[in-house]
Amino acid sequence: MTSEHMELKGDAEEPPPARQSGRCKEPLNMNNYANKKSAAESMLDVALLMANASQLKVVLEQGPEVKLYALLVTLISISLILQVIVGILLIFIVKWNLNDPSKHYKLDVLENIVTGMIFIVVVVNVCITAFGVQHSH
Q1: By the 8 A CB rule, do 65 and 82 touch?
Q2: Measured in Å, how far apart are the chain's first and last C-alpha atoms?
Q3: How many CB atoms lie within 10 A of CB 35?
Q4: Shortest CA distance to 52 belongs to which of 74, 81, 79, 87?
Q5: Domain residue spans in the chain?
Q6: Which of 34, 63, 78, 113 is 20 to 30 A from 24 (CA-CA)?
Q7: Cα radius of gyration (the chain)
Q8: What is the sign of the dihedral through the CA atoms of 45, 41, 113 and 100?
Q9: Where is the chain membrane-spanning (predicted)?
Q10: What is the pLDDT of residues 56-91, one digit of tens each?
Q11: Phi/psi zone of residue 132: left (φ > 0), alpha (ψ -120 to 50 degrees), beta?
Q12: If 0-12 CB within 10 Å is exposed, 13-18 middle and 19+ buried, where does residue 64 land?
């Protein structure tokens, strides 16, 4: 019989744990995975936060005579606010235990909200780039 047929019928034996460097590979710890993923997202969020703060500084220094001044200040402010909210939500996601099934729904909703907000931040930052923030020399 083929291995696919045995697996479908449930006759297949469980394969031995994968070996890597002479050690058994441990199962994926979802809490560690989520914490690392959230930490990476947070680092990217901090980098974008610093870039937006720098852009806001340049626009404010150049003053209202800059073309599209109000629009740029508004877009950069929206981006900054959303990034702070995303950062706070990521802290809550990291603090909750993924291995607790009673929290799965809440975590899924929070992850979806964070993903949506990150998408909005990206769109807002594309608009900021399109309308331009020129550094004065």
Answers
A1: no
A2: 74
A3: 15
A4: 79
A5: 29-131
A6: 34
A7: 23
A8: negative
A9: 68-93, 113-133
A10: 999 999 989 888 899 999 999 999 999 999 888 888
A11: left
A12: exposed
The DSSP line for 89-109 is HHHHHHHS-TT-GGGHHHHHH
Find tokens 């626009």 and name the residue: 59
Q: pTM (2 decimals)? A: 0.66
- Non-local (6+) Cβ contacts of 111 within 8 A are 93
Nearest to 126 by CA among 48, 37, 60: 48
| Cα 61 from chain centre | 31
Q: At residue 3, does pLDDT exceed 60?
A: no
Give mean pLDDT, residues 96-108: 81
Q: Where are the alpha helices (DSSP H) in the chain?
A: 3-9, 30-62, 69-95, 104-131
Tell me the CA distances in angstroms from 32 to 23, 43, 92, 98, one per residue in order.
19, 16, 15, 9
DSSP, residue by residue, 50-67: HHHHHHHHHHHHH-TTST
